[in-house]
C-alpha cells in the first residue's frame, strides 16, 4: 500500500489530475520531398515555414498516410513495426535505414518506438492516421510535454501500451489527459521529475484507468 502524503500536496495533486490543469508551457539522401521539415518540425528552436508545413499532406498524397508515418518515424531515428509483421524497421547509428518499407503501402503501423528522439506535440500529427497503433514508447523524450499527452486522444481507439517514462517536461496536470485512453492496458510513468506527490498521483491514475497496469519506479514514496 502506498504511503499517505501531506494534505496540501494531496489537494493540489487531486485537483490537477482529476480536473486537469492547462498544460505548461544528417541522414541518407531521400527520394521523398521536404526531408528538412521532418527534422525541423520537432526542433522548437527552429522556425517552420508555411511551405514546409505542407510536407505531410504532400507525402500522404503520393505515398499514403502509412508510408508517410513510417518515413517520419525513421527520419526521427525512431523504429516501428507494421501490422501483421515481426520485423522492426530502424535506422543505424548513422541514421541510415532500409528503404524496403516502401513496399508496404497501405499497411498501418502497430508499434512505434520513439525513445530518446525529439518528437513533440506537432510531430504527433504524423501518427494521427495510424488507427492500428497499439504500442507507443516515447521514453526519455525531452520535448514530450503536457500538450503531447493532450493530443494522444487521437489514438484512443487503438492504443494499448504507452511508455512516457523519463520525460522531464511532463507535469501532474498533463497526466489528466490520459483518462481519454480507455483502451490502455499498460502505462509506464516511471521517473517523471515534473510531477508532485507521486504516491497520490499513482493512486489517482489507478482510479482513472482501472483496467491498466501502471509501472511507476524511480520515486521516493516514503513519508517525509
UniProtKB/TrEMBL annotation:
The highest taxon in the source lineage is Eukaryota
N-terminal signal peptide: none
Give the UniProt family note: Belongs to the ATP synthase subunit s family.
What role does this protein play? Answer: Required for the assembly of the mitochondrial NADH:ubiquinone oxidoreductase complex (complex I). Involved in the assembly of the distal region of complex I.
Question: How is the quaternary structure described?
Answer: Interacts with incompletely assembled mitochondrial NADH:ubiquinone oxidoreductase complex (complex I).
Protein name, please? Distal membrane-arm assembly complex protein 2
